[in-house]
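Dear colleague,

Thank you for sharing your sequence with our group. We've completed the structure prediction you requested, and as agreed, I am returning the results in plain text so they can be pasted directly into your records. Please verify that the sequence below matches your submission; if there's any discrepancy, let me know and we will rerun it promptly.
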Amino acid sequence: MPSSLPHTHPDGRAGIDAALVERLLAAQFPQWSGLPVVPVEVDGWDNRTYRLGDAMTVRLPTAAGYVPAVEKEHVWLPRLAPSLPVPVPPVLALGAPGEGYPFPWSVRRWLPGETAAHDRVADLPGFAVSVAEFIRALQRCEPAGGPAAGAHSWYRGASPAYYDDETRHCLTVLADRVDTDRARAVWEAALAAEWHGDPVWFHGDIASGNLLVQGGELAAVIDFGTSGVGDPACDLVIAWTMFDGESREAFRDAARQDEGTWARARGWALWKALLNLTQDAGEDPARAAVELRVIDAVLGEHDGRG
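Please find the predicted structure tokens below.
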């Protein structure tokens, strides 16, 4: 995703460090000043997150493109939370630009758990059902007034056609690594399966890193920065990125989506895997192998349902 960083830092992400967080807290939320500020062990790219004491986190966007998510989550997460089967991040405060940092930021309640992984989930089909039930519950939330899919969601919830040029470029670049004829058929099927349903809430990035587990079960869903109201197909991509075999079928059955939505979901999964594989450029064989497995699964499913 594109970014425009205001100034640089050794990690390349907006000059954010623990000292900055401490200054922001002291200036804007002195009641929390003095609590330990420690980077989280597993962090994302869109935001830097710090533990604040034992019970809170501070979350700061790394570039201007991620700023719309701050107020969106501040407004909508408290409204969505009561209707969802597991916790989502409780927002405690909205911070303003300051101390040389140019963006709004937030303070959240800490949610316990580890990011989802196969070795942390004993019953993967059961976990897949829990994820699907979360998606279904989110879709039942009242959409009126919610943010329509667009730039703030990186066009998740809109038509995958927004990424048509990018996808076709990736297919050209990857002609020697991917069966481009089969992949192009998947992509064109996704574009043809236009969405005409009523808008519903979508998360936009249902992925293992945004699913927390405790005791092997789904315990929370985090990072609603790409959420909005529109087409829910993008939330089904985890069918190929985390699930397979029995767990994929369990997810499919519990998600209860029509074939057109699944066709668009295959398009979303293909686009992202192709993009990651193109950007990898052979420098990370392990990551490339993961993306190739996703592509093979998507192509195989399309062929089998064609």
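Summary note from our side: The CA atoms of residues 170 and 200 lie 30 Å apart.

Kind regards,
the structure core
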